[in-house]
Design a protein that fits this description.
The structure is a homodimer. By secondary structure, chain A is α/β, with parallel strands linked by helices. The first copy, chain A, folds into two domains: 115 residues, NAD(P)-binding Rossmann-like Domain (Rossmann fold); 178 residues, NAD(P)-binding Rossmann-like Domain (Rossmann fold, 3-Layer(aba) Sandwich), CATH 3.40.50.720. Helices cover 27% and strands 17% of the residues of chain A. Chain A contains ten helices and 13 strands. In chain A, strands 8-9-7-6-10-11-12-13 form an eight-stranded mixed β-sheet, with helices on one face. A five-stranded parallel β-sheet of chain A has the order 2-1-3-4-5, covered by helices on one side. In chain A, β4, α3 and β5 form a beta-alpha-beta unit.
Chain lengths: 337, 337
């Protein structure tokens, strides 16, 4: 008698849709859906593979002692900060993520934000609402400097796109690189303060790790140009939001476009909602039409690799908290459709 | 006794600033300022060179019989539709314009508008004003098709930039071209209807001429995709605004970003101001910080060429209504600083 098929558990949300297109996995495994921490606890004892579709859920940690047969977790997000905890990090369970799926969408989103600032679109829309015809001068984006914090697949996609629009680009990564084909000069995160003053746009596209948490506080803002804008498409907690509020209110920096926050959804009473020069968007920069099938397809491909005993795509270094890329690697081949 | 220095008259606005940096001209000529039609009439009898700084003024036509000594007009705008009239067109007076100064700024503005549509920025800002956190999916710009109407310096700069952001590009010009390095396939304006249906973004960057006036009417909108957006940075009268209102209200097309209008400023009661899916901006797409010095510098350079008897830059073909470019010319070398 052949062994029973492995159990693949999908951690989804009771309210949201389930991942589409898992039929190829269903032919090779028993798929169970866990829609709550309680049902995850029940399913986990038999689970060999966990597909975390609801990547905002942090319930795995609470039920970790039940994960006796768990060998591999795939998470449908690029950041693994919500998922990763010390017991998982020190275990032999493999963690893979959705690196690559969001690169193009986020890069376009960031370039759009840069152009919206440079061309005064926010003010234009406010004036339009008042039927006010008020001519203003715009800024050239060409020749302005973008400092990209985070040299992973997303940071490099941003670098390529804003450079193609004529911007100068520099990068900040865990370790310095003499030359990166997408980011040019890359300085180590410890030298951030030395390069912040060159940037017209500081773009955060880093994972949330112990090294990046709170990286942007009052001392970082103090080193930025007064005309600089901050764009955060990484994780909210990389920025000290109280310090950012202070920097914006005191005109220490000129503006911010924030797609991520330390608490999401951003609380209704939070002062960032209506601070002049601030754009608030609801953690959507990477979520293009078709993202759900693309995220599923990546898991399906990885599952087929798993069954064939082949190396998995996007294995997270659990000590670093992200998928380490070869220096200078210009993308990981996982472009969205 | 040497001949008296030639009279250069600057037609400016009584309310607005005068052109900066004309000292090199002042050393070679007598500069007079005309701030009204009346003072233009007085100055014109002695004027050899007219620099139309207030390019919205149409007063030259009224005082044309006084232009007995006029040999050359330079206008500080790319479009000459306001300036050009039959008596000027049939005269021997040379007309030059500011072709090239606005290219980069307008191209960036257009790419910003495309990204703002694709990423839902207008809705994001409206939601922010209500402190509403509402996640939405965005569109990839890469792979979408931009049809650029107008294959002059501005149209080609737009083509280069949106192509570098991953869009497919096609062009519409007075005459077809098998291949344009910036626009790819270029069809003749008479074949516009055959290609409109391919475009996700229809971008008008053409001069206003007898061929383009009213080019976009109900029949053009009927051929566009229902998901298409119209961007007009050319001239308002190229679009039949009543037909556009109808196409937008009936959802025949998905949206429009308009920087130019048949009447400017757009009248306060005009329904375009608050139609959903429409962005109204006050004819500013080309007006980057530094545009005034750049416009002056171009006139100064042309004046020096004039005094040396050299060919002038940007000579308008007064029958066509624009500066004819060599097919495939990728720019005219007059990039703004």
């Amino acid at each position: 008698m052949p062994p029973p098929p492995p159990v693949v558990t999908v951690l989804a949300s009771a309210r949201g849709p389930r991942p589409p297109g898992l039929e190829p996995v269903a032919r090779l495994a028993t798929i169970r859906y866990a829609l709550s921490a309680k049902s995850l606890a029940r399913a986990l004892t038999e689970t060999e593979v966990l597909f975390i579709w609801n990547f905002r859920s942090a319930s795995l940690r609470d039920v970790w002692p039940q994960a006796r047969r768990l060998r591999w977790i795939h998470v449908a997000s690029a950041g693994v900060d919500t998922i990763l905890f010390p017991e998982l990090a020190s275990s032999s369970v493999i963690l893979t993520n959705a690196r690559g799926v969001f690169d193009q969408a986020i890069a376009e989103y960031v370039l759009g934000l840069v152009l919206a600032f440079a061309k005064g679109f926010w003010e234009t829309l406010d004036l339009q609402r008042r039927r006010a015809w008020r001519h203003r001068e715009t800024e050239h984006v060409r020749g302005q400097t973008a400092l990209i914090v985070g040299a992973g697949a997303i940071g490099r996609a941003i670098g390529r796109l804003v450079r193609s629009a004529g911007m100068r680009v520099a990068g900040v990564a865990r370790t310095a690189r003499a030359f990166d084909p997408d980011l040019g000069r890359v300085v180590a995160v410890g030298d951030l303060g030395a390069v912040l003053g060159e940037a017209d746009y500081v773009i955060i596209a880093a994972p949330l790790t112990s090294e990046t948490r709170g990286l942007f506080g009052a001392s970082a803002f103090a080193r930025m140009k007064r005309t600089a804008r901050l764009i955060n498409v990484g994780r909210g907690a990389i920025v000290d939001e109280a310090a950012l509020l202070g920097a914006l209110r005191s005109k220490r920096i000129a503006g911010a476009a924030l797609d991520v926050f330390s608490v999401e959804p951003l609380p209704t009473r939070h002062p960032l909602w209506d601070l002049p020069g601030v754009l608030v968007s609801p953690h959507m920069s990477g979520d293009f039409v078709g993202w759900a099938p693309a995220l599923s397809a990546l898991f399906v491909e990885n599952y087929q690799r798993w069954r064939r005993g082949e190396p998995l795509l996007n294995v997270v270094d659990k000590a670093l908290g992200y998928v380490p890329g070869a220096a200078g690697e210009s993308n990981d081949g996982r472009r969205p459709p």
